[in-house]
Specification:
This protein has 360 residues and is of the alpha+beta class. α2 packs across α10, α8 runs antiparallel to α9 and α10 crosses α11. It has an eight-stranded antiparallel sheet with strand order 2-3-4-5-1-8-10-9, with helices on one face. A two-stranded antiparallel ribbon has the order 6-7. A hairpin with a 5-residue loop joins β3 and β4. 42% of the residues lie in helices and 16% in strands.
């Protein structure tokens, strides 16, 4: 499938390089805000929701890069893409009245979700300062026309008590196979607990050998404690320890287990290049193993940001979008089976990405 060439600025945010992107797949920062003189969304009537919707619509018109989308007009495929990009959740009870997106979907605003306004900014790699700067520019844009509920004692008022104060929550997505394989993950958990942070797996694949199980989200347990700078300093100090630990163990693992490492990589590569059908769990495992192989010098011909982007490009929503917008000729036995078609297309996407990949 041929794609048109794009400039770096037009690429989706997850396709770009970032600081420490061998370990941090993405940085996410979220701000929770509520309008003064309106009840929280859970207590709002339809008139209130429509009024808040209109006020936010007016506020974002000052920036032509933002696109205001009525949530009820987003069909299932569009919602799946938003879920894949972590803009909305896959919870059955999820609801909002509008989604505001910028051109590359790195910035989004949910209207009348848990709070009246939830602003999110994504960055590839570990980029807390950039993400903070960008999300506060959106906050300032909104505050030019909106009055947010706040008090001297509690700061910004939010529907969840743990979000009060700054309304800020930072989370980073980590890939730490060396720490887990070496049995040192428990020591990381102890440090996470000591700093009042949380760490949770992104995937929970039953196959313990699946490398996608080595991807975790690190985030504060209580976003209301301390200032924005306190939260940044807290997560940054722990992240720096994790970076050093992962890289140190990675070097040792590669030196002491060359055959085991090469076996991981060759098996994943063979599965990628010779499979006709791939589930997302299988694709995430393959991408993660090849990423580990790249970091340990066993793989070349592909870049960290290409592999990080594949986690998104292989997801259901993106594959479904490609299937619906490009003409593909599937094998006869797949023509009436959409699920199998998507698995076939996912295999093709992975194989195209690995065309120049070599194993040493």
């Amino acid at each position: 499938m041929a794609e048109s060439k794009k400039t770096e600025t037009s690429l989706p945010w997850f396709s770009l390089a970032g600081q420490n992107d061998d370990i941090v797949l993405s940085t996410k920062i979220r701000l929770a805000r509520n309008l003064a003189d309106f009840p929280f969304p859970v207590k709002m009537n339809q008139d209130d929701m429509e009024r808040v919707n209109s006020l936010v619509y007016d506020a974002v018109q000052a920036d032509e890069k933002f696109h205001f989308i009525d949530y009820k007009n987003i069909f299932s495929q569009g919602r799946q893409v938003l879920m894949d990009k972590n803009i909305i959740t896959d919870e059955k009870e999820f609801d909002c009245t509008a989604v505001v997106l910028n051109d590359d979907d790195s910035k989004s605003i949910l209207v009348n979700h848990i709070d009246h306004v939830r602003i999110t900014n994504f960055h590839s790699g570990f980029e807390t300062e950039k993400a903070m700067s960008e999300i506060y520019r959106v906050d300032e844009l909104l505050q030019e026309k909106l009055q947010f509920a706040a008090s001297r004692e509690f700061g910004y008022l939010t529907s969840h008590i743990k979000d009060c104060g700054t309304g800020l929550k930072i989370s980073i997505r980590l890939f730490i196979p060396s720490i887990v394989l070496s049995g040192q993950f428990d020591s990381i958990i102890s440090m996470v607990t000591e700093k009042k942070l949380c760490i949770s797996p992104v995937f929970q694949v039953s196959d313990t050998a699946n490398f996608a199980n080595f991807i975790f989200d690190l985030y504060p347990g209580n976003a209301s404690e301390g200032s924005e700078l306190d939260q940044v300093a807290n997560i940054t100090s722990l992240a720096s320890i994790i970076f050093k630990t992962e890289r140190k163990i990675r070097r040792t693992f590669a030196d002491n287990n060359p055959t085991i490492l090469l076996n991981f990589v060759k098996r994943a590569y063979a599965k990628a290049m010779y499979s006709l059908l791939l589930t997302y769990e299988e694709a995430a495992d393959i991408i993660s193993v090849i990423k580990f192989g790249l970091q340990t010098g066993r793989v070349s011909g592909i870049m960290e940001q290409d592999l990080n982007a594949l986690y998104y490009r292989a997801k259901h929503g993106h594959i479904l979008y490609v299937n619906d917008n490009y003409a593909f000729s599937y094998e006869e036995d797949l023509k009436k089976d959409l699920s199998a078609q998507l698995q076939r297309l996912r295999a093709i996407v992975i194989q195209q990405a690995f065309e120049k990949l070599t194993i040493s």
